[in-house]
Amino acid sequence: MKPTPKPKVKQRPQYYALRVERQLDKLGYPVGDVDGDISARAKQALCAWRETHGLPVSRGGLTLNDAYSVLNATKRPTPTREPGIYVNKTCQVMYQIVGKTYKRIVWVSTGAPGYDTPNRTGKVWRKWAGAHESSLYDDAYMYDSIYFLKDRPGIALHGSRVNSLIKPYPASHRCVRVTRPEIHHIFNETPLGTKVQVYGDY
Question: Where is the L,D-TPase catalytic domain (predicted)?
Fold first, then answer.
């Protein structure tokens, strides 16, 4: 009698989680702790990965298609957009595109419910180095602020007093909070006139 062949068993996505996190981190998609736990931070990275690779954008957990895509990659893709800063509210990430490369992919926290960051395209018109207190909210400090909407002059990309204020979900008062020291580097590398685009929905 011929032996009955055993059916091929597809691995579950979780089997690849640690390897996927290591690869995402290596390619510059921040995942937080590289521990095999697909946390909210790792989901932000996966969301960014999907967008930059032309896949359906979502904050969902790891799928087999994601795992194969990430583990077969050797480098970041070439952006299809012009140089500038792009804030994706769905993923709560920001892309800094310089030339034909993604210079940085960083976590952000956009406006909380009732304080929504508007989906708009603007240009950097003002920069304020270092720390200053918000003119609208007491004891709210902004670091290395980059203003990009002249008709909404209170809205900026900026660092906060502590990185714990940059949540993996919308939590700001309309500004785009960016992790430090990333905002400091972006501030120094972003001249006046740079395109800034905010888009997506959380």
Answer: 83-199
Contact between 106 and 178 under an 8 Å Cβ cutoff? The reply is yes
Q: Is 158 labeled as catalytic in the residue annotation?
A: yes
DSSP assigned state of 68: H
DSSP annotation of 2: P
pLDDT digits (tens, 9 = 90+) for 65-114: 999 999 999 999 999 999 999 999 999 999 999 999 999 999 999 999 99
Dihedral through CA 122, CA 128, CA 134, CA 135, nearest 10?
-80
- For the sheet containing 156-159, what is the strand order? 121-123, 195-199, 84-88, 93-98, 101-109, 176-178, 156-159, 141-147, 126-133
Catalytic-role residue among 47, 53, 91, 175? 175
- Cβ contact 26:34 at 8 Å: no
Q: What is the DSSP letter of 188?
A: H
Catalytic residue among 158, 173, 184, 185: 158
Q: What is the DSSP letter of 163?
A: G
- Is 175 assigned a catalytic role? yes
In one-letter notation, the amino acid at residue 69 is: S
Closest CA to 153 of 166, 142, 163: 142
Assigned token pair, 8: 């091929």
Residues 103 and 99: their CA atoms lie apart, in Å, by 9
